Every structure is written in structure tokens, then in C-alpha cells.
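Backbone-to-sequence.
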């Protein structure tokens, strides 16, 4: 998805902007560009393709400006091309703009501006922004220092949709103006310099002190100070947030890819997720939650709403929450939920899971639940992200920055956090015997070491991946929570190896999919639930007799000789087993993708943060 970087300081801006854009590459993009303020004019350099291609444009090395804005674009309106790349300038070349999000009413604005004598060069929605700013600027007869700001605000008042915007002007060569609505933007504070970005990791090497903007805030950013305004352009105060992530945490740390690094970080990230939220012999606690027995007893259901992997974390923990709390749990796909009329009300607790906290569908689904009177709880990995500002309550996964597009450590942290939430609510409700909860807590505490055990020997997984990497189709099967993790294993394989795969409940095989099994079809099955073990083994046998190659992830005492390859994982309560059994599946997909020579961190057509529908 698109990314934004900006710099206001004393150093040459262009290398700093390019460095920031490179750090945003993981988000996915198709073109890149930057503008700097040179002596009384704006230089604009952009190109289709990779950020590094900007270095091939000779003009880049001539830029001396110490203020600039930059962008990686992921096409929404108009194909990837130089002319559609950002920054976009107004006709008089006084204003230059980069923009994340979508201006939904851009067509009406374009007609309005065309009728007022403006021309458009690109097919983008963004190009209306600098021209509308110019329009309002030229109509304003008051020539005070806030004229530029007023023009930006007037233009934004006309926009429908979402945006994070940076604007510079050749008439105001000392500042960048930024604003946002439903799209992320942060400002990093340095010594006589300030950095701007849509994503914290892009500027984490320069500072750990950030201002997080709320919707419709406007900011004038100078090298040595900032002016914050609300939507009416009244001055407001903001406090600085210190972000604990260090810059190396956002880099590869010696691993070949971010994805592998993040897979290996899971023992650590789970320890962070657990934090001090659970203790043996003491009630669990979340600093930011104050649920009472009265409130939880009044609930008619819990709705967990999310997209992709985050939604799979909901499916993986539905059974645990229902089992411990005796409250029905429904798990919903955000893009479906938001467009139907779900039966939810003030007696429904609506939980929204989003690693990035910026997923457009998840945020819209949260707003819908709020409008129907539900209490909303966000689970996110990104402090201050949009979803956390919309929700009544937020709890953070604390998994650390996840850079690879394919989510790994965020998933296991979400599973663990939801499990702890289930325990916390059950303790308040008194719906589960305390020794059962204590046992589960012990199991959660043991997870990091068990994860490490799985990570210590991956040679078997690697070998099986090598054997099957040329396959066209695969199946992932399981029962109960093993079915939930099969869905996630299948998604991982699809997204990074481009192999078609399906995740199925083992019991469903006979109702159709078994027709697809033929000689050498690979079937991956997960078996961690003792009560369902025999039935699960029978299902694997059914596919094996039809010629399937069988790869089994298990912690049960099974006869290994009946399967092609078995990965043993440590014993774990099946209510939380997805947090452990997913690791061999993550590695399986990873090694297949590597075997195929693919870029695992940036799979085709995918973006890390899906901030548009
Ligand atoms: C898959 C993946 C996606 C995300 C989904 C939701 O590996 O990463 O399926 O899980 O786009 O993203 P967030 O959690 O940021 O809302």
C-alpha cells in the first residue's frame, strides 16, 4: 500500500527521503517519487518501479533542498506510470502533494476545478488536492502567515474519503503541512529536524520520539518547532510518545528475510505478549480493561471481526473463549460484516483484531458495531494506530514491528492475547474452575520454550518442502483448533509460494474435496487434540490410500510409519495449540517459497497494510 515520508531540517533532504522510502518498500508499491524545496521552486522527481530507480535520474544529485516530501504509490486510480506517481503539483507548480488513501469524490472536484480553468495530467484522485489548495489559496485575500494552512484546510473540508497528506509550497520554503483522516501519519522529533512518515519503522533510525496525529489535525512542521491545530485551525497541544522499538529491531538482524527473522522471534514476542498480564495464583489483569462481572454476565455474544490471518486468530481462539466463559463467540470476516446488518447490540462485545490497526474493512466494521451500541475492543500491534483510536478499549499484542507482508509473529501473539483475554474474562465471570485456568496459564508460560524447541530443528520441514515445492495444489486439514490452524497454514502457503491450497475441516473431506485427491497430492494435517486423534488419523489414511503424500504435524503418539513425513511438536493443551502448531506450517511455506526462488517478504499483489477496500 502507499507510503509517505517527509523531512524538514538542515541536511540535504533527498537521501533521507530515499532512505525512508526504502524502509517502506515492504508495504508493496509500484512507483516512487519525491519533491524538495529548492531556491524558490519545487523540484519533483518520480519514476515507475523501484525506489532505487530514482537514483538513475540525474537531477536527483543536484537537489540541495533541506525540506521534502516523498511517496511510494500502489495504484488505485490510473495505472502505474511516471505521470500518475506522486508527488502531484498544481498547475502553477506552487504546491506539491503526496497522499495516501482515496478521495472518493475526486471526480466531482475535478469537474469543478476544470470548470475553473485547471488542467489535469494524471488519472489519479490525488491531483485534485494541489489544485484545490491552489484554488482556495488564490481566493484568500488575507495574506497572513496562515494563508497556506487555511488553503489546505479548505481543500480538506471538500474531500470525502480517507487521506494522509503532506504539502509543501515554494511560497513557504520553511515548512511542510500535514493532515490525516482515516489514514496513518506520524511525526518523529529530532534535533533541529523533524521526520514524517506513514509508518514508524521508516523513521525509527532517526528518533524514538513521535507525535501521533488524530483525524483532522493539521500540523505546520518547521525544522525547530511544530504548530498543531484542530479541524477549526485552533491551536492545540500534543504530547510526545516514546516508541520503545529500537531501529535494529526493525531490520533483518542477520536473517535472510524479515519473514524468517519474525518466525524465529516468536518465543520472544510471546513473552512480550504475556508480559505481566497473567500470573500464577493471582487474577489476570489488563491495564486498559475494567470489565465487571455485571457487564460480562450481560453479554449475549462476542463477535470477533478481522481480515486474513488476524481473522484466523479469531477462529483459533473461539473454542477457548466459549469453553472458558460460556459466552457464544462468532468470528466474522470484516469485509462481509460491514455490509450486512449483523444482529448485534449493547449486549454484544465486538472484538477487532488488526496487526497494523489500519485495515480499512476492520475499521469500518468497528464503526458499524459502535453505531449499534456495542462496546468495542481493539487488538492491535501498532501503538496509536487508527483502530485503537476508534475502539472503546485497546489491548496491544506487543509483538514488535512485523515487516514481512506474510504475518507470522503477529498471529501467534494474537492467539495468545485472545487466550489470555478468555482466561481474564472467565476469572471475572467465575465460569471455569480455577485449577483449569491455572493449568492453562502454566501452558501459556511454557509456550515460548516449546516454540524454541520447534525452531531448533527445522531440517525435516526443509526437506519435505524441497520434495513438494513444485506442486500445483495442496490441502491442509484438521479438526477443532487444528482445523483453525490449517486455514492459516493454507493462507501462508498461497500468499508466499503462489501454490493453490485449501484449508478444510477433516470431516468435510468426504463431502466433496476428496474428489481432488490423486497420486502425489500433498496433504498437510495437524493433529494435536487427543480426543479427535483417531478420527483425524482416519482422515489422513483416507487420502493416503488415494495416493496423497502426507505431511503430519502432531504431538500425539502416532505410528509414524503410516505417513510420508511427521513433524513432532511438544505436547500442548489443544485450546492454545494453534500458537505452536502453526510454526511448522509457517516454515513449510517459507522453505517452499525459498526453494522456488521467490521474494518471501514482498509477495506479488499483496501489501502489508490494506488501508483501502
Ligand atoms: C496474511 C496477512 C493478511 C493480514 C490481513 C489483516 O499473512 O498478513 O491476511 O492478516 O490483511 O491485516 P491486519 O492484521 O493488519 O488488519
Amino acid at each position: 500500500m502507499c507510503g509517505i515520508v517527509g523531512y524538514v531540517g538542515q541536511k540535504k533532504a533527498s537521501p533521507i527521503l530515499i532512505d525512508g522510502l526504502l524502509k517502506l518498500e515492504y508495504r508493496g508499491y509500484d512507483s516512487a517519487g519525491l519533491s524538495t524545496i529548492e531556491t524558490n521552486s519545487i523540484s519533483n522527481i518520480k519514476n515507475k518501479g523501484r525506489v532505487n530507480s530514482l537514483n538513475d535520474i540525474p537531477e536527483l544529485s543536484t537537489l540541495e533542498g533541506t525540506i521534502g516530501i516523498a511517496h511510494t504509490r500502489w495504484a488505485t486510480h490510473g495505472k502505474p506510470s511516471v505521470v500518475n506517481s506522486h508527488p502531484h503539483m498544481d498547475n502553477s507548480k506552487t504546491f506539491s502533494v503526496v497522499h495516501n488513501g482515496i478521495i472518493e469524490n475526486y471526480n466531482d472536484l475535478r469537474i469543478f476545478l476544470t470548470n475553473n480553468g485547471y488542467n489535469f495530467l494524471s488519472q489519479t484522485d490525488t491531483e485534485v488536492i494541489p489544485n484545490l489548495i491552489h484554488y482556495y489559496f488564490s481566493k484568500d485575500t488575507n495574506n497572513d502567515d496562515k494563508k497556506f494552512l487555511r488553503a489546505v484546510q479548505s481543500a480538506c473540508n471538500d474531500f470525502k474519503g480517507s487521506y494522509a497528506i503532506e504539502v509543501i509550497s515554494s511560497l513557504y520554503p520553511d515548512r511542510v503541512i500535514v493532515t490525516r483522516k482515516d489514514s496513518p501519519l506520524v511525526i518523529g522529533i529530532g534535533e533541529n529536524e523533524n521526520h514524517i512518515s506513514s509508518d514508524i519503522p521508516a523513521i525509527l533510525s532517526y528518533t524514538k520520539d513521535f507525535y501521533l496525529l488524530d483525524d483532522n489535525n493539521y500540523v505546520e512542521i518547521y525544522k525547530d518547532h511544530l504548530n498543531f491545530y484542530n479541524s477549526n485551525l485552533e491551536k492545540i497541544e500534543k504530547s510526545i510518545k516514546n516508541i520503545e522499538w529500537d531501529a535494529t529491531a526493525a531490520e533483518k538482524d542477520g536473517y535472510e528475510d524479515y519473514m524468517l527473522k519474525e518466525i524465529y522471534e516468536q518465543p520472544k514476542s510471546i513473552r512480550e505478549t504475556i508480559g505481566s498480564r497473567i500470573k500464577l495464583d493471582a487474577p489476570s489483569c489488563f491495564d486498559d480493561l475494567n470489565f465487571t462481572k455485571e457487564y460480562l454476565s450481560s453479554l449475549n455474544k462476542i463477535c470477533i471481526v478481522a481480515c486474513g490471518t488476524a481473522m484466523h486468530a479469531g477462529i483459533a481462539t473461539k473454542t477457548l473463549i466459549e469453553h472458558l466463559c460460556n459466552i457464544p463467540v462468532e468470528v466474522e470476516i470484516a469485509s462481509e460484516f460491514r455490509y450486512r446488518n449483523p444482529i448485534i447490540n449493547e449486549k454484544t462485545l465486538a472484538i477487532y483484531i488488526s496487526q497494523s490497526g489500519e485495515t480499512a474493512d476492520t475499521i469500518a466494521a468497528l464503526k458499524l458495531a459502535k453505531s449499534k451500541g456495542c462496546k468495542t475492543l481493539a487488538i492491535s500491534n501498532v501503538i496509536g494506530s487508527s483502530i485503537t483510536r476508534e475502539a472503546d478499549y485497546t489491548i496491544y499484542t506487543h509483538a514488535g514491528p512485523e515487516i514481512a507482508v506474510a504475518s507470522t509473529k503477529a498471529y501467534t501473539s494474537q492467539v495468545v492475547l485472545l487466550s489470555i483475554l478468555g482466561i481474564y474474562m472467565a476469572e471475572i465471570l467465575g465460569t471455569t474452575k480455577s485449577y483449569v485456568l491455572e493449568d492453562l496459564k502454566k501452558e501459556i508460560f511454557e509456550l515460548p520454550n516449546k516454540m524454541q524447541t520447534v525452531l531448533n530443528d527445522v531440517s525435516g520441514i526443509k526437506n519435505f518442502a524441497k520434495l513438494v515445492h513444485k506442486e500445483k495444489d495442496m490441502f491442509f486439514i484438521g479438526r477443532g483448533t487444528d482445523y483453525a490452524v490449517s486455514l492459516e497454514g493454507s493462507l501462508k502457503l498461497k500468499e508466499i509460494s503462489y501454490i493453490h491450497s485449501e484449508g478444510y475441516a477433516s470431516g468435510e473431506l468426504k463431502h466433496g474435496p476428496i474428489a481432488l485427491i490423486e497420486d502425489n497430492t500433498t496433504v498437510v494435517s495437524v493433529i494435536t487434540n487427543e480426543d479427535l486423534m483417531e478420527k483425524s488419523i482416519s482422515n489422513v489414511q483416507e487420502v493416503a490410500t488415494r495416493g496423497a503424500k502426507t505431511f503430519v504435524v502432531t504431538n500425539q503418539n502416532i505410528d509414524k510409519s503410516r505417513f510420508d513425513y511427521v513433524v513432532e511438536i511438544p505436547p500442548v493443551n489443544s485450546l492454545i495449540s494453534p500458537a505452536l502448531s502453526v510454526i511448522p506450517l509457517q516454515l513449510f511455506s517459507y522453505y517452499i517459497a525459498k526453494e522456488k526462488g521467490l521474494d518471501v517478504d514482498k509477495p506479488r499483489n499483496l501489501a502489508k497494510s490494506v488501508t483501502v477496500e
